[in-house]
Amino acid sequence: MKRQSSSDGVYSSIKSKTSPEPTREKSFFDRHVSSHDDTSPSSLEIGDTNDGNDAWSAMQVRHSKEAGGTSFIERGLIFVRSSQFFVIVAIAIFLLIVALLTAPHSDASVAPIRGEAYLTTNEFAGIRIAKPNEAVLITGGLGFIGSHVVDLLLHRGFSVTILDDESNGHNHNRFATEMVPHDITVVGDLPEIGNGNSFTHVIHLAAAISVAESMNDPDKYERINYGGSEKVFNWIRNYNQHVSQSDDAAGTFIQKVTAASSAAVYGDPDPALLPLRETAPYGGKSPYADTKYRMEGLMREFVAKQNEASGPKASAVALRFFNVFGPRQDPKNPYSGVISLFLEAALHNRDINVLGDGEMTRDFVYVKDVARAIVMSLLHESTDDEATFDNFNVCTGKSITINTLADQVRQKMKSSSQIKHLAPRDGDIRESSCNNEKASRGLQFTSTVSQEEGLEKTAIWFGEQ
Q: Are 107 and 122 a contacting pair, CB within 8 Å?
């Protein structure tokens, strides 16, 4: 009998139903089918007009060829039952564990609770998720450091209000409430008390920020860094007094204020004091350093006045930042940090200008570590019944020379820039190194990004701008 192939029209011979079947061992497939059908596949007649029988026959032929006498499924079942299978599985699991333990771990970014900034686990390490109704007022929140703090607070779910005059940055964030442009030196620009504004914490970063500029314009620094800070602390005290006397059930007390001080308060210390602890004496050499140190005095007074009176009390922390650097630092500002100025020069293959002989030492701390230190200090809860004040260094604990930094920048940017030495600048400090033990012990804060790793991240950011 002949049947035409549906694919190519060629006639092929097919065995008649009287042709003998080759003998072979009955497969798992055969046994399975026969147990559910009185007619086994081998008894189906080729040439039967039943299409289902044709399908069964074709399947049986293919299965026989593939199995070679013993079905593939049956072989697999036999192998799974064997000891060899378990040995191979055990070896595979062991190799997988070794690979996972030895492979470099990529710190994947984590989606924010609020906002749109994805952060790595290192960038919010040690910071809890916001409790219901926790709200932070941050002065200077559009600036270099402040904008990173805003990202971090939103990431952990805090409600954020930014008060800024836009003098040092324009890093707006649509997920925060913005009071812009508002000036901390103008009492009327601070949030209106008792008009639905409710806060639990305050971060005070708004300031004039340049040692060099302060030498030329000391009145500006007196007005903003000292006078403006005094108005902020008075506002906090008045806010808490209002809440304590109000019947508004939605009103919340401000529990803590963290403010930005500076390592400039140490001045040019005796080398015997290095690395610098918070107990080192004041040695500021500029109006900038003087106003930051006196701001700390305002904070001590702020706490003391609260403890003398009844009612809610807000504790205070001053953080003495060493040399902060990272993305969003404005290289166009002549008073910007040295790393941003060096990167900008290297990007355009211009001379990298080093003031003095370049052997001055600095502790450079990455901005996202600084943001983390700020929030950790803000959320750190004291066991004291009264308000407290304390100060902490924020640094890495490692210093490098400016010459070394200039070389690193040139290499990272693959730049042909030349390093050029200029006259030293008034007010600059010769040696600066930091002891970070107090922050590590008191706030559980240590930097997670090394200076070189931070420089790499910052160089990438500069290249993308």
A: yes
Q: Is 244 helix (H, G, I), strand (E, B) or coil?
A: helix
Model confidence over 41-51: pLDDT tens digits?
444 343 444 45
Is residue 40 within 8 Å of 31, Cβ to Cβ? no
Q: Are 434 and 397 spatial neighbours (Cβ–Cβ below 8 Å)?
A: yes
pLDDT tens-place string over residues 260-318: 999 999 999 999 999 999 999 999 999 999 999 999 999 999 999 999 988 889 999 99
259: left (phi over 0), alpha (psi -120 to 50) or beta: beta
- pLDDT tens across 110-146, in order? 999 999 999 999 999 999 999 999 999 999 999 999 9
**Residue corresponding to tokens 């001379």:** 351
Those residues with Cβ within 8 angstroms of residue 355's Cβ, 6 or more apart along the chain or in another chain: 402, 421, 422, 423, 424, 425, 428
Torsion of CA 261, 267, 271, 272, to 10 degrees: -60
Burial-class residue 460 by CB neighbours within 10 Å (0-12, 13-18, 19+).
exposed
384 Cβ contact partners less than 8 Å away, ≥ 6 residues apart: 315
325/368 Cα distance (integer angstroms) = 9
Rg (C-alpha) for the chain, rounded Å, is: 36
E-strand stretches of 94-164? 109-110, 119-120, 135-139, 159-163
Structural contact between residues 317 and 378, judged by C-beta atoms closer than 8 angstroms: yes
CA distance 178 to 164: 8
Q: Are 180 and 166 in contact (CB under 8 A)?
A: yes
Global pTM? 0.78
